Automatic annotation (TrEMBL):
Top class in the EC scheme: isomerase
Localization, UniProt: Cytoplasm
Superkingdom in the source lineage: Bacteria
Binding site for substrate: N9, W10, K11, G173, S212, G233, G234
GO biological process annotation, one example: glycolytic process
Name assigned to this protein: Triosephosphate isomerase
Active site positions: H95, E167
This enzyme's EC code(s): 5.3.1.1
GO cellular component, as recorded: cytosol
MF terms (GO), sorted A to Z: triose-phosphate isomerase activity
Role played: Involved in the gluconeogenesis. Catalyzes stereospecifically the conversion of dihydroxyacetone phosphate (DHAP) to D-glyceraldehyde-3-phosphate (G3P).
Length: 249
């Protein structure tokens, strides 16, 4: 069901002590009475600690990645079963850093999505164009194929477990943000493409914006009609900034 979400992607930041102290501070600072789901995505090694600290709170825990196989000889990898067995029900897939540095292809990502859904996990699926695609006006085309190649094979009922995060690659970690109009244009486009393939359920899909969301730009981005919240990197590493962003929704 479509709802507001603020998710923090911690990437390869914060050890166990830092994770514990951030989360305890976050619990104390969490805004009350806000209709927003808050999610944090720490490193694999700190997921169990995070689920324990956040057990009786309304902050959810997500993994930043997951392997597509059920198990086996894949040294260094983490399976869906390992995640759900410690209470992690959400996974971020398709982040541009996974696509760029780890060569994750649309077909591989489709496989990962299928595995996550088989385990009844929720997927935050990232899409977004590079700067060259924006400059050549191919940005909608690129995002369309990212959706089509990894998600449009899914049956209708699977969409209940899918959240989209639109993250223009040129805005991730660069301080450069899409304008609220650019964000709205793409979010609307994404919703239209989902509607084109699946009909009315598109209205129920949560679509997050990600790319240098900060306390001072969050409100205008979140005020766009098709923007349902944010996937936040850098500003999610600091409790004051993260709570300010939660308050901006
Ligand atoms: C991200 O990595 O998903 C992200 C949006 O990072 P940042 O907010 O730092 O641009």
């Amino acid at each position: 069901m479509r709802h507001k979400i603020i998710a923090g992607n911690w990437k390869m930041h914060k050890n166990a002590q830092e994770t514990g102290s951030f989360l305890n501070d976050l619990i104390n600072e969490m805004p009350e009475g806000k209709e927003v789901e808050v999610i944090v995505a720490p490193a694999f090694t700190n997921l169990m600690l995070a689920t324990q600290i956040l057990e009786d709170t309304n902050v959810a825990v997500a993994a930043q990645n997951m392997h597509q196989a059920e198990g086996g000889a894949f040294t260094g990898e983490i399976s869906a079963d390992m995640l759900t067995s410690i209470g992690v029900q959400t996974v971020i897939l398709g982040h541009s850093e996974r696509r760029q540095y780890f060569k994750e292809t649309p077909a591989l990502l489709a496989n990962k999505v299928d595995t996550a859904l088989r385990h009844k996990m929720r997927v935050i699926f990232c899409v977004g164009e590079e700067l060259k695609d924006r400059k050549s006006k191919q940005f909608q085309n690129v995002v369309f194929y990212q959706l089509k190649d990894s998600l449009f094979h899914l049956p209708k009922e699977a969409w209940e477990h899918i959240v989209i995060a639109y993250e223009p690659v040129w805005a991730i970690g660069t301080g450069e943000t899409a304008t609220p109009e650019q964000a709205q244009e793409m979010h609307q486009f994404i919703r239209e493409q989902i509607a084109h393939h699946y009909g009315n359920l598109a209205d129920n899909v949560t679509i997050l914006y990600g790319g240098s969301v900060k306390p001072d730009n969050a409100k205008t981005i979140f005020s766009q009609p098709d923007v349902d919240g944010g996937l936040v990197g850098g500003a999610a590493l600091n409790v004051a900034d993260f709570t300010a962003i939660i308050n901006a929704i």
